[in-house]
Amino acid sequence: MRKKHNDSKNAQSILESAEKQMKYTLTLISTEESAFNIVRNIYECFRMIGDALLISKGKISEYHTEQIRILADMKVRTERPIKLVDNLRRMRHNINYYGYSPRKIEAEDAINLAKSCFYQLLSKAKEEIKNKNGPGGS
Questions:
Q1: Residue 13: inside a domain
Q2: What is the mean pLDDT of residues 5-23?
Q3: Residues 118 and 25: beta-carbon distance below 8 Å
Q4: Domain annotation covers residue 47
Q5: By CB count within 10 A, which of 20, 44, 57, 125 is most buried?
């Protein structure tokens, strides 16, 4: 992981984009044909939260595993375990590099995971980044 100056404004922008993309993705109807985009988009939105947190701490990650690991380390209560996002990471990798086609049921599971974890993580990330900008923050 490379170091650079912390960039809270960029981190906030990434969170806004993740929120916007998730809102859109959750409007998609899950079908065998849309599963590909749903799984990839939901994963990407989670990854963006991790990326924003790292950027706010002055770290640049070259690997998605680091961006997902920071999510798993967050102290957030969710209906489903956050570590399940790593399953999305692996599925997205298989989609992008091995031609895997997710099924409708996998898209529905990703939607369920997003609904039970994403907004809690997003809220906590926004709070952490905002606190870095406040008194004593960067």
A1: yes
A2: 92
A3: no
A4: yes
A5: 125
The Cα 48–Cα 41 span in angstroms is 10
For 99, the token pair is 């031609």
| CB 103 within 8 Å of CB 30 | no
| HSE toward the beta carbon, residue 107, CA cutoff 13 A | 22
State the CATH number of the domain containing residue 87.
1.20.120
- Nearest 5 degrees, angle CA 109-CA 114-CA 116? 95
Question: Residue 88: its pLDDT value, please?
Answer: 96
Range of the domain at 30: 2-126
Q: By C-alpha distance, which of 27, 49, 70, 67 is closest to 122?
A: 49
Number of domains in the chain: 1
pLDDT digits (tens, 9 = 90+) for 58-115: 988 877 889 999 999 999 999 999 999 999 999 999 999 999 999 999 999 999 999 9
Check if the beta carbon of residue 49 is closer than 8 Å to that of residue 71.
yes
DSSP H/E element including 119: helix 119-133
Which of 61, 116, 123 has the alpha carbon at shortest distance from 85? 116
